[in-house]
Amino acid sequence: MIPVAAAIAAIGVYSAIEADFESRRSRKLVHVIVPISTTVTLGILLGSVAIGSSWLVILFAGGLLLYSVFISESLLCFRSDPRSAPASVFVTALAYASAAIVFSVAKALTNRLIFFVLFLLLISVPVAWRIFLLEAEGIASLYKAVAVGLIVTEMGAALFYLPFVPLSFGALLFTAFYSVVNLVIIVSSGFTVRAALRRLSWPIGMFLASFVYIEFFR
Asked: Which residue has the higher pLDDT, 51 or 116?
């Protein structure tokens, strides 16, 4: 059901922007990435909770969240609209949140390395591409996203057979994803690698502290 729901979300967003947004088809397709990742994330959350009041709250909140994503992506079609700035912040935050949740359950979904690698690539590359496109246009964004996906996937594959708790393993993967994406963004803005690492030190430290807490103290 999750792939079906994700496909419906993608078709809905694409149809909404098709009539009003004059651009190449490939440029329009990037607007379905975060709606798909959000739908997958909500599907995972709903599947992990027993049907009851909590399930209904997640369903209702998820519906509002998806509606907000659709509106935000529609606004981002027109970057001259002043409302596109807060929409960009919202979509970026949701892209990171979706990646974090999916990474957290990735190891629990399969015990086969090949499926795990494909799953990581299918999540990390599109989400990183969408984040890069929110920062700057151009084909280089796709190359950067592929590089991020390969780095995260290689790290995940290297650590796959270590006895980490799935949640802490996901925190470790998200730390790598967040760090590499933002390192690329900051360095592309003209900062040195050393300055970029200094700016990223506190979020990286926070994520690594979360990993240590989940793995060893929970």
From this structure: 116
